């Protein structure tokens, strides 16, 4: 599994707690998407399972390490939903818990990795909770989540909560530069759009994905003078419509930042001219536009079976009304 430089510090911290006798049997990793927490959990789990660890590293040569490398270690359990299911049910959890209450098959530790703790059903979470309250000897649980608030409070209370912070922007840009030849403004934009998470930024920078974002920005740029927002329907009407609406919302918010002398905090570093043109519409229109876009995005994400095309059509017509007048589409003094 690939390793990432921003994981070095949290990895060493987890190990230092354990080596000092303050290690917890259940660790909850809280991270935004694109941070690579699966690599952190794997490395820490491998160290726990290693029979002759070398300081902060697993030895890489013992039978346990060989089994981890092959993906066949019998004491490394990964809890993910069954194919076609969105939730992690009680039957899978009970099956794993039965194993961890038995003797380790390799005579050492047992580690359970749950990559998406939020999708545990209530029954599954309660079953897991009972084991976390009285864990078997040498058994460790590693859980990851995006939104800790979606977990049972009692489950959270049985875990050591560790927030995995995004690296500083220069570090993220340095890593991205090693993955491809990108302009600084482009790398900064990709990172800022996704909270500084390098893996999410790299995904956005893939050619097809980046072209989709460029098409959205170009569509907004053309709609401003023409007033024809409805022509963007084909640009938005995709499976990732929620993401595209998020991109537009960040443009509106960047324009508000520019109007209030906070241009340095812009997310879209590569779209200064578009942000300047949007800023000419004033606070009220920008706030209305952002609010309406985010409302549509929420509906797309929360309403099962919603008519996406109809919802987007209504949004684009609303944007036409909001931005139909009041702009001063010429150079203006907004500073970056």
From TrEMBL:
The keyword Calcium does not apply. One of its GO terms (cellular component) is DNA polymerase III complex. It comes from the Bacteria. It catalyses: DNA(n) + a 2'-deoxyribonucleoside 5'-triphosphate = DNA(n+1) + diphosphate. GO terms for biological process: DNA-templated DNA replication. It is an enzyme of class 2 (transferase). Pfam families: DNA_pol3_delta2, DNApol3-delta_C, HolB_lid. The keyword Nucleotidyltransferase applies. Keywords: DNA replication, DNA-directed DNA polymerase, Nucleotidyltransferase, Transferase. Residues 208-320 form the DNA polymerase III delta subunit C-terminal domain. GO terms for molecular function: 3'-5' exonuclease activity; DNA binding; DNA-directed DNA polymerase activity. SUPFAM superfamilies: P-loop containing nucleoside triphosphate hydrolases, post-AAA+ oligomerization domain-like. Residues 167-206 form the DNA polymerase III subunit delta' AAA+ ATPase lid domain. Its EC number is 2.7.7.7. This is DNA polymerase III subunit delta'.
């Amino acid at each position: 599994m690939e390793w990432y430089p921003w994981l070095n510090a949290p990895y060493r911290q987890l190990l230092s707690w354990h080596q000092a006798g303050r290690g917890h049997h259940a660790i909850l990793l809280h991270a935004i998407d694109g941070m690579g927490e699966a690599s952190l959990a794997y490395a820490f789990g491998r160290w726990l399972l290693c029979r002759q660890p070398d300081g902060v590293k697993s030895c890489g040569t013992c039978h346990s390490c060989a089994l981890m490398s092959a993906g066949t270690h019998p004491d490394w359990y990964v809890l993910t939903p069954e194919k076609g299911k969105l939730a992690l049910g009680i039957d899978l959890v009970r099956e794993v818990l039965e194993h961890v209450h038995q003797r380790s098959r390799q005579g050492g530790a047992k580690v359970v990795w749950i990559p998406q703790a939020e999708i545990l059903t209530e029954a599954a979470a309660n079953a897991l909770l009972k084991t976390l309250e009285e864990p078997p000897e040498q058994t460790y649980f590693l859980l990851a989540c995006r939104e800790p608030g979606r977990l049972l409070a009692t489950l959270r209370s049985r875990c050591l909560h560790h927030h995995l912070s995004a690296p500083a922007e220069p570090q993220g840009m340095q890593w991205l530069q090693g993955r491809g030849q990108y302009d600084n403004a482009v790398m900064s934009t990709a990172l800022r759009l996704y909270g500084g998470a390098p893996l999410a930024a790299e995904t956005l920078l893939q050619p097809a994905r980046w072209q989709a974002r460029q098409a959205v920005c170009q569509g907004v740029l053309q709609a401003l003078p023409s007033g024809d927002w409805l022509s963007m329907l084909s640009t938005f009407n995709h499976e990732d419509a929620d993401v595209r609406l998020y991109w537009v919302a960040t443009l509106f918010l960047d324009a508000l930042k520019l109007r209030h002398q906070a241009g340095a905090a812009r997310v879209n570093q590569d779209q200064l001219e578009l942000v300047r043109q949007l800023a000419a519409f004033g606070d009220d229109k920008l706030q209305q536009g952002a609010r309406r876009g985010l409302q549509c995005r929420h509906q797309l994400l929360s309403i099962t079976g919603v008519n996406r095309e109809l919802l987007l059509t209504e949004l684009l017509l609303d944007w036409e009304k909001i931005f139909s007048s009041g702009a001063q589409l010429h150079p203006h003094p907004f500073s970056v």
